[in-house]
Every structure is written in structure tokens, then in C-alpha cells.
Amino acid sequence: MAVWGLVLGILAGMAGVGAGTGAPTDWGHNQIAGQIQVLSTSHVVDFPSNVTLRLEVRSSAEITGVELFYRLGNQDVTSYGYPEFSNALHVNAEFVLRTDGDSFLPQGTNISYRYVITDSSGRVLDTEEYTVEYLDPSKAWQRLHVGDMELLFHDRPADGVEAVAKDAARSLEEVKQLLGIAFISRQKAVILNTVRESEESFPPISRTTRERHVFGGFAFGELDVFVLADLDRDGMVHEMTHLYMNEALNAPGVRVPAWLNEGLAMYFEAGDKGRGRTVSRAAISGNLLPLRSMGRVPGRPQDVGVFYAESWGIVSYLMDKHGDGPMSAFLASLQQGRQLEDAFSGAYGFGLDELERRWRSSVRRGAAISALPDPGTLGTSVIIGAAMAFAMLVIFVRRLRRVADPAEDPADDPTENQDVDYYQ
Q1: What is the CATH number of the domain that holds 62?
Q2: What distances in angstroms separate CA 328 from CA 21, 319, 320, one per listed residue?
Q3: Stated pTM of the model
Q4: Cys-Cys with 190: which of 49, 108, 314, 364 at CB 3.0–4.6 Å?
């Protein structure tokens, strides 16, 4: 799932971040302006709650100001904050940042920051830029580079991670070709291992959604990071597609509807994962969502499954029936600033309402066909059902015999104390 609006919340709620327990850094002679000298800088992470940045500095005149300027990922936007300290010749400044709740920050994010220090004589020191990678310091993180991905993981065999990533990278070449991407900076993939890790590492979601484990990953396009709940080939393809989309459709004012973003990410996964059945059931029960209401992912967990299945179905219909060409033209028109309706009709020759009508018609036809009984399948089901009933009857009779004759040893019965699996 892509998290497009989250970055605004990060910028509004944060004032910097670090990773790990950083040893003090000696800045050297470049960090001296007149008599202002940075002695050390360090960082401590209390994951996932907060990060503390620490600075030690001295001057021949009283230090009166310390400002912190930072950037997240590859953003051009710089934010700032004010570390706490008391005016003195020798100062220890400290800044505590929240990294959860409204100030959530995903693991893997690079934080580039610097300090501007002033003293009472008017001298100013603008320090070098320092970069910190935000990660849970309790984990022994490993790192691999595969294709456009930089994979961060722990407590897994590296060769297994590499094999899955290479498989995903082959499919991602098709995505790049569709989007016209020739080059992209490396994107970070943080791979987790447990449900608890996911709860701590995913952005805030409702309790019901969390308990149902609705989401398996999140992409943060403005930060060049995605986080997965587990090692999963399709998860890599899905989230990297979001990051490619963010790179390809980055012009000011471009708005990509969620059905298109999620639909394309699912289209390049392997198989439909039961989404076709979900769409058919929703069509039969009248629970399909209106296309024009699918600009964003619904908030109710019970609607999320239909939304994703429907998004997959609509994009699959477009790609399978019309090919890559119109989709590439559609996306290129969005990047050029055309409105959604104009960009779509210009590429496909019909509008979004007609798309919904045609797609729903194809779904209803498919649902009607699948609802017809298959004589072969029906006959097989009857045979299997009869065999199961007979087996249960035999077991029931034998148990009655044992009740009537306790001396009978159940060990003599080869059908007792065995698990029976039924395959269809």
C-alpha cells in the first residue's frame, strides 16, 4: 500500500531523527569558526518511540543559539528545530524527536542534518552535513543490493533474500518499461520477521485493521523506502511498483487515483490471489464499489478487500484487453499535467464511466459462467462426499463395537489414531 499523504504529517510532526546508538563524532578542524568548536555529536534511538540527537560545542564567547536543519530521504525540503541547552561557553545540546504516532517515521529513512551555532560575539558556525540511517538498533541488520533495491534484513539467510529479490527484479523490469524509467536511485526495502515487528514498524492504522493483518507492506514514495511484514516476492514487486510510480509521476499537481496505483502494483504480481473470486462475489451481491469513489483506499477494513480486488480487476482488464501502449500513454499524459478524465479518454478513446460499465459487464459474464455447475466437478464432489460419509459410518460403527466389547484393542485397527487428509 502506498502512503502518499503521510510525508506531510512527518514534516509537520517531526524535527529530526537519528538511528542506533551513535558514538561521538570528532568533526575536526573544519568544524571551527573563529573560536566556536564542535567537540562531538551523537544519536540514541529508543525504537519506535523517539530519537535523541546530542551535540557538544564550546566557544570563547557565550553560546547563545543552536539550530538544527534536516532533510528526510532525498527530499529537497529542509525542516528545522531548536535543541535544548543553557547559554554557556561549553554547551551540551539535546533534541528529542518523536518517531511514532503523528510523527511516524519508517525504518530505513536517511536523515541528513547539520547545526548552525552562534555565540554572543556574533560568530556563526554552519557545520558539515551528517547522515543517519533510522533503524531499530536492537537488530543485527544485514544489507544486499539487487537491481534498484537496497535490502535491509536481519536473522535470515542472505542467499534466500537474494534469490527472492532477483526473482522480483526480473518482473520489475516490465514495470520500468511501462513507466518509461531508465534510471532511479536505489530504493530501500526493509524486511521484517514477525507480527510484532510489523506493528511497531508500520504507520498508525486502526486497531481492527491491525488485528486482521490487512496490510503486508507500505511504500513511502517521498522517502525512497518500503517496509514489508515478511520476505515476499510479490510484496517486493508491489511496493517497488509504487516507488516507480512515484518517480515517474512526480510533476507538481499530479494526482494518481488509488485504484490505478494499487491496481498496477497488483497486476505485476504472480497470480490473482483469489481477487477474481472476490470480485465475482461482490458483483453477485451488489457490493462492488463505484469507480469514482476509489480515489483513495477505504477506511473500513471490510471494504479494503473489495477495493483491492476491484482495483486489480479494472487494471487487469485494461492491460489484458488493450495492452501496454494505451496505459503508457495514459500515465505520460498524467505526468504532463492533464486531468484524469482527459488523460484517460485521450489514451483509450472512452471515458471512466464507460470503463466502469464495460468492466462490470465483463465481470457479470464471468460470474454467470462460474455459477454454472460443472458436471465433472459435481460428479467428483458427490463421489468424494459419499466416500467421506461411508468412512465416518465405519468409524462410528467400530466405536460402538468397542463400547459393547471393551476388550477389543484399538491398536489392532489401522484406521484409528491417524490423521486423514482430504484432497480435491
Answers
A1: 2.60.40.10
A2: 46, 10, 14
A3: 0.78
A4: 108
